[in-house]
Amino acid sequence: MIGVKAGKGLWHVIILSIFTVIFFHADIKAAHNYSDALHLTTYFYGAQRCGNTQSWIHGACHVKDTGFSGTQGNIAGGWHDCGDHILFGQTAPFSAGALLEGYLAYPSVYEDRYSQAYSAPPPNGIPDILVEVKIMTDWLIAACDGTRFYYQKGHSADHNHMSEPRDQSITYNVNEGGEKDGPRNVYYRTSGGSNVAGDAAAALALMAIAYQPYNATYATQCFNKAKQYFAIGDTSPGTVGGADCCYGAANWQDDMAWGAAAIYRASVARGAPENTYLTKAQTYIASGHGAGSWPLCYDHTELLAHYNLWLLTGNTTHRNWIRDEVNYYKANLVTCGIGQYAFVTSWGSLRYAANMAFGAMLYHKISDDTTAYDFAKKNVDFILGTHGDIAGSPGAPQGRSFVVGYTNPDYPSAGSVRHPHHRAAFGYTAAENADQLWQQENNNPGSVPFKHVLYGALVGGPRSSCSNYNDKIDDYVANEVGIDYNACLVGAIAGVKYVLNPPAPTLTHTPNLSHTRTRTPTVTPTFTITPIPPPTQKLNLEIQSDANSCGESMRLKIRITNWETTAVPLTGITVRIWINNSVAVTAEQYDGRVRNSSNNDVGTTTMSHSTTALGSVCGSGDRTANKYVSLSWTGPDLPANGGYLYYDGVVRRTDWQPLDGGSGDTPCNDYTRTLSSWSAWTNTPYFTLYQGTDLVCEYTNASTRDANTGINPCTGADGCPVAGTFTMTPTRTRTSTFTRTRTPTFTRTATPLPPTATFTRTRTGTPTFTRTRTGTPTFTRTSTPVPPTLTFTGTRTGTPTFTRTRTETLTFTRTPTPVPPTLTFTQTRTGTPTFTRTSTPVPPT
Q1: Three-state SS for 688?
Q2: Can you tell me the distance from the alpha carbon of 140 to that of 226, in angstroms, rounded to the nearest whole number?
Q3: In sequence order, which residues have a C-beta less than 8 Å from that of residue 155 and are 6 or more positions away?
Q4: pLDDT of residue 16
Q5: In the chain, % of residues over pLDDT 70
Q6: Which residues are paired to 561 by β-bridges?
Q7: Euclidean distance between CA atoms 33 and 674, whole angstroms
Q8: Which residues are CB-contacts of 628 (< 8 A; sequence separation ≥ 6)?
Q9: Both ends of the chain: CA-CA distance in Å?
Q10: What sign for the dihedral angle of Cα 221, 223, 224, 228?
Q11: Structural domains in the chain?
Q12: What are the respective helix, strand and coil percentages of the chain, to the nearest 5?
């Protein structure tokens, strides 16, 4: 059972040709078998099946689960949560939805290796991921009648015994976690429960898109049921946690935003957009948490809501939120020997590493930011075994995979973890003394053999950064598995696999049929895109602090660096600090000076400040502002090539009380904050740097834009323009096409016959089809020395030629009587229609 979590949570790749991919960093170890890893982590869900759904690891179980009309077993099915047998609405719909987000992002890399029955061959024509997810969406459909929905089956008594699922069902009474004396406890809601309802709506709506090619009727059923869940959640919105244990719930707006966005996305895919859901999604996400509040998980789905809204609207606010989220957690990377991963908390630490990796892959998909890909791949590779010895953890030597049954190719002898906290994998029954054997195995790992290998399961992972992992059966913090642990890992692996192995182009061989040459001139416009240079100079804002500003005065240091080759006047440069409170705010300077790149003082500065009320609240979630404090300085110019302004001071209330201590103020909701962890200079998007009235497009050095440039919370602007101008250059190409042509012939034959009259008609039809496709891909990269102008020129000429030849032979034999000679006429008709298709790229808008 997974416990309550402890908090809330360009490197531009250029395809040089259709056959060549540039790989990113030589320091990323291990050529993992991502296809096998993707298959195994998907296959794991077959072990979690409940009811009579043909799990590959256990027999039918908990078949009496009953709801609504009282027909026994009508809500059997779905997924077991972790190493136990409860179904939780907090994790199950989220997991299904996350799996589908990954599939829809990278559908070409998901394989079809098996059928629904026991997740075993032969393939059934449907990707395995959809086979497994359908177990859960089938249950979601059964668990909602339009007026209420069930969100939990089973209760904490499930944890009393260690028997495998079928044996637990038939051996123990309900008060001991089984169903020997009747159906298990089930729990439902008629309104609210919005965190569960929103995730269920998202999962079903995404399934409506994914399953449409395989069963349109089922897809429609999913779509309609998604709207029923959303309607219930939209009535008196609120949260619902575990009925008697395990999962708390702190917020619901993110889940409802994701559900509404997914329904709207499905309606668009079905050709009938339902705009009400788009409006709902935008309204709900405006109340969601800010980037960096907590990583993507069942209790924080903001990233998936923003991702869908970016796909649907193209509004950069949503893409920027994901960018900020990814950039925030890059700072959590820790190095463990040969590998790295992001660590945020002890319970299920690798679940969060996988989730952060998936979020980074989705951001890479919409931005081509290869630093996001690099971050994602490091986390995935760590999980698959690219790491050194985990300190104090004999169960995790260098190279050992944290995915059960997957072996790191670089360390084949290291294998994978062996003793997951999972009753079905352990496999023993009450008659075999499962409870005692479980304890024996825990006291002496390896002393009791597991009956099954839990293929594809991700375990919780190290309790501390690079240390403290126990490969023991009863360690539910470090060694339990879960449907939500695997959910984002599957999508992250799929994304890495896609980047390393993009779909290959289909090549069609065209035989040379004859020597007839046809020249086809094709005029192709070539577009040169020139980004607009930023209106500001190359400056960079960094913050340093040894105090957390939540509820306190904001004690901080500021450094503004000039990366221009000439000095920049200090006058006109301001820093805005965004605050939401109802009291007067002031600022002080303890030290202020200008230094050159060698850290030599050039002179002191004088700071002044002002406060500007916004008139309304900007921002979202727990990062908001109703005013900003502007800090500005007078003093020497900032020296070129790394000279900087240094400021040491405080932003505080005029009466030295906490910043958010006014009447009606909400603690710790200011858009701008400082953190005690900023002992080193830190780039943060929540401070904004202006030059005059222009938001600065920041640079970390003379040539690199800062990916973490400050963002205006009211407009979403980040100072770095992305629009550009383009010029069109016509290019003329000639393409030689070879076709075979048949020539009609007429033959006159005189044949003497006896004096009888005979009429014979013969018709011969021979249709012949020849397809010729000619592709001329041309990719040109042009660097223009006007910073930051990058020109990409792509020209593709495709001239498919279709030739259809039909030959019809009519033979007429005419024999007059008694005229001696008979004339025979043979006529051949040839028709050659030719179709030419020219593919011309559409200019960017």
Answers
A1: strand
A2: 9
A3: 86, 177, 184, 185, 243, 244, 245
A4: 31
A5: 77
A6: 540, 644
A7: 42
A8: 576, 577, 578, 579, 611, 612, 614
A9: 51
A10: positive
A11: 34-497 (1.50.10.10), 517-528+724-836 (no CATH), 539-695 (2.60.40.710)
A12: 25, 25, 45
Q: Is 571 in contact with 598 (CB distance < 8 Å)?
A: no
Tokens of 843: 């200019």
Name residue 654's amino acid.
T
Which of the pair, 72 or 811, is modelled with greater confidence? 72
Can you say whether residue 182 is alpha, beta or left, with left for phi > 0 and alpha for psi between -120 and 50 degrees?
left
State the number of CA atoms in the 13 A half-sphere of 439 facing the CB. Answer: 5
- Give strand pairing partners of 542: 559
Question: Is the peptide bond between 818 and the residue preceding it cis, with omega within 30 degrees of 0?
Answer: yes
The pLDDT of residue 799 is above 90 = no
Are residues 139 and 204 in contact, defined by beta-carbon separation less than 8 angstroms? no
Query: Could you tell me the pLDDT band of residue 243, with boundaries at 50, 70 and 90?
Result: confident
- Are 81 and 166 within 8 A, CB to CB? no
Which residue intervals of 211-301 are DSSP H helices?
216-233, 253-269, 275-285
**Using an 8 Å Cβ cutoff, are 222 and 189 in contact?**
no
Longest dimension (CA), the chain: 132
259 in Cβ contact with 201 (< 8 Å): yes
DSSP string, 442-461: HHSTTSS--SS--TTPBP--
Matching residue, tokens 């729990």: 187
Tokens of 363: 């951001």
- Per the CB < 8 A criterion, the answer to whether 506 and 452 are in contact is no
Dihedral angle, C-alpha 257, 259, 264, 268, nearest 10 ° = 130
Least confident of 44-53, 399-408, 545-554, 610-619: 545-554
Q: Is-contact 112 269, C-beta < 8 A?
A: no
Whether residue 537 contacts residue 692, with contact meaning beta carbons closer than 8 Å, is answered with no
CA gap 342, 486 in Å, rounded: 16
pLDDT higher than threshold 60 for residue 248: yes
Pairing of strands 573-579, 87-88: unpaired
Strand, coil or helix: 482: coil
Q: What is the mean pLDDT of residues 763-778?
A: 39
Peptide bond into 788 cis (omega under 30): yes
The candidate with the shortest Cα–Cα distance to 57, out of 90, 24, 80, is 80
Angle between helices 349-367 and 483-500 (to 10 degrees): 40
For 39, phi then psi, to 5°, come to -60, -45
Query: Helix, strand or coil for residue 687?
Result: strand
Alpha-carbon Rg for the chain, nearest whole angstrom, is 34
**Stated length of the chain:** 845
**Higher pLDDT, residue 466 or 800:** 466
Residues 761, 809: Cα–Cα separation, whole Å? 10
User: Starting from the edge strand earliest in sequence, which strands make up the sheet with 694-695, in order?
Assistant: 606-620, 623-634, 573-579, 687-691, 694-695
Q: Which of 582, 529, 536 is nearest to 717 (CA)?
A: 536
Strands 554-562, 643-653: pairing kind: antiparallel
Cα–Cα distance, 793 to 80 (Å, whole number): 52
Query: Is 653:586 a contact under the CB 8 Å cutoff?
Result: yes
Listed residue (784, 94, 191) closest to 483, CA to CA: 94
Task: Give the whole-angstrom CA distance, residue 492 versus residue 486.
Answer: 10
Place of tokens 């256990």: 58
3-state secondary structure of 689: strand
Question: The pTM is what?
Answer: 0.61
* Residue type, position 628, single letter: Y
Tell me the three-class secondary structure of 602-648, residue by residue: EEECEEEEEEEEEEEEEEECCEEEEEEEEEEEECCCECCCCEEEEEE
Rounded CA gap, 482 and 247, in Å?
Answer: 13
Distance CA 474, CA 478 (A): 9
Give the rounded distance of the alpha carbon of 520 from its chain centre: 44
SS3 state of residue 139: helix
Strand partners, 524: 731
pLDDT at position 303 is 98
